[in-house]
């Protein structure tokens, strides 16, 4: 029986760091998530589980693992795939990989913002299609960023890093959080709190950085798009289900908003067919933290958390301290 199950192969440095953690099994199947039935079988008796965001960690899985499971170390900052209260009830520690991916994810949010406002991917597709063209003052016009307003929905670490970059583009920042940021955090960003509805009405670019919870599921639906400016852009690098993809496709088609950039999807890895047909949408395959340096740091941090949990010490990124008995 293995001590540790790893549900997706990580970068080499992180795989090497697993040495010394006992018998480690790694899912090496095709480029799909580990089939649920296989996961439920292979998890039996393990003490540590290193997961990625496609694995649902719920009561059924915890039952299949059995009483020896000490820790679930998620190789992600988002933990919407894990039922944390259920883990806590069973004394199973849960960790994530915050901080190390903050800057890379903020960079990617900006890649999408620029792609959307200046039609970067659309222009690339246009040339690849060998469309005849000549420079034209009216061709493929986008929007200015300078002097405009960036609205951050969910202004945590990644939201703040995204806001910081706006200063270099000459933008003003508004944000929506359930609670306003402390002044020492908000002031250097020049960021002002707004209600969700006011942020939608005022922003030229809306960038989403909130976690997926029952409250944020479909936060962006028909009503939200109707409140946005017709020249506005929506970028989502958080979790797909925060945006209602069908409503987004309808809003884009109706000209209610100008463009959207999505790194994450409602039924990932599936992409809503209605979106694939729209030139005003820029799509990326969940690349927020996908840099060489960041993926190494995430993998090493996940392994470090796993090792601490197995050794009975307190992991650095423990999310349910109630489950830690010391
Ligand atoms: C990736 O989406 C993460 O949550 O780290
Ligand atoms: C999300 O958890 C963040 O780091 O902003």
UniProtKB/TrEMBL annotation:
Positions of the D-isomer specific 2-hydroxyacid dehydrogenase NAD-binding domain: 111-288
Record flagged with keyword Oxidoreductase: yes
Similarity section: Belongs to the D-isomer specific 2-hydroxyacid dehydrogenase family.
GO terms of molecular function: glyoxylate reductase (NADPH) activity; hydroxypyruvate reductase [NAD(P)H] activity; NAD binding
Name of this protein: D-glycerate dehydrogenase
Species this protein is from: Actinokineospora fastidiosa
UniProt xrefs under SUPFAM superfamilies: Formate/glycerate dehydrogenase catalytic domain-like, NAD(P)-binding Rossmann-fold domains
GO cellular component: cytosol
Keyword Endoplasmic reticulum attached: no
One Pfam family this sequence matches: 2-Hacid_dh
Stretches assigned to the D-isomer specific 2-hydroxyacid dehydrogenase catalytic domain: 4-320
Alphabetic keyword roster: NAD, Oxidoreductase
Domain of life (superkingdom): Bacteria
